[in-house]
Amino acid sequence: MAENTSTRCLLLLVLVSAAAGVASGIADGPLPNGIFEQGPDASQLNGTRVTRQDAIPCWEISGFVEYIQSGQNQQDGMVLAVPEGAHAVRLGNGASIRQQLTNLARRSYYSITFSAARTCAQAEQLNVSVAPESGVLPIQTVYTSSGWDSYSYAFKARHTTAWLTIQNPGVEEDAACGPLVDAFAIKTIGPPHHEKGNMLKNGDFEDGPYIGPDNPWGLLVPPMDEDDVSPLPGWMIMSDTKSVKYVDAAHHKVPHGSYAVELVAGSECALLQEARTVAGRSYRLSFSVGDAGNGCAQPLAVKASAAYSSQVVTYESQGTGGSKRAELEFAAIADATRVVFQSMNHYMKPDGTLCGPVVDDVSLVSVHKHAARRLFM
């Protein structure tokens, strides 16, 4: 049986690579059996519980793991939906699932994306690791009406192979209680770099994690320590438990290019980048503020800060897209300056889900002046 499972996984890996048109290196897109449509044989299930470590092709499991079909009812009457395909995996107390990533390029950067949904506890979280890096993704805040959110995590490859592990560290009275996970994908992301005429890296957010064609709600980029690899090269997200959302032009209105960031957590979360500056010299920070065309129809306010200067920019959103440009001039006070963006308030759509202003096309230039002033748009 184990040989049959390995054969199915190898076939999936070949098909994924062929579809991506790559001869070597890991392909951008879904991981082999990343949406769990290849499941255990009936003999490897006890109800919904998976009984063998290698029963799910391309994955290894540990602990109380269930193979869930979309529309399945829980004991409490909740119906479990699945974001992609017809199946997902549920991680019970202390349970984990892992897949070996192959054909990685050493010292290259990668982002992992997947979807997750709470099923019981209010403070669920997931431990994500690609050894030796690891991180904790808080999933207690739900940002979509479906209950499913998509998350991103990034790492720098140390070797050509590595184990991706997702673990539920929770311990609940019900051993099966834990989040559902689905839709795993990977993407190579570039090291942070400057575009010509911009002191900031990745100021237009065009380099970022993989958003699948069937993902209508964007990706959450969770808070991270300063030494973590960011799924948004060049940018950090500072918060205790809240995230920003990475959105694409295929499913949202984006001010510039193909991607932008939606600030969905109010002042509890900051999007920031540190740039090298010269104390006493003047700089101009330019950026776009708008709405994602997702029904967030209300005045949306963003606070931009740098050194001792700040500016609040309001965009009168109709919820159908659109944006405005804004500028902030400031005098640097040190050889490094943090550029910070925060949403001024918590905003909700009519369905009760969180939304917020979109920030995009951010640039920083020296204006070679010694007196700072603000330009209000």
Automatic annotation (TrEMBL):
InterPro entries, sorted: DGR2-like_dom (IPR006946), Pectin_Meth_Modulator (IPR052437)
Q: Report the residue ranges that make up the DUF642 domain in this protein.
A: 30-187, 199-364
Query: Its domain of life?
Result: Eukaryota
| This protein's GO CC annotations | extracellular region
Main localization category: other
Keyword Signal: yes or no?
yes
Q: Does the keyword Transferase apply?
A: no
Q: Which Pfam families match?
A: DUF642 (PF04862)
UniProt keyword list: Glycoprotein, Secreted, Signal
Q: Which Gene3D superfamilies does the record match to this protein?
A: Galactose-binding domain-like (2.60.120.260)
| Subcellular localization | Cell envelope; Secreted
Note the PANTHER family from the entry.
OS02G0527500 PROTEIN-RELATED, OS04G0494950 PROTEIN
Can you name this protein? DUF642 domain-containing protein
The organism encoding this protein is: Setaria viridis
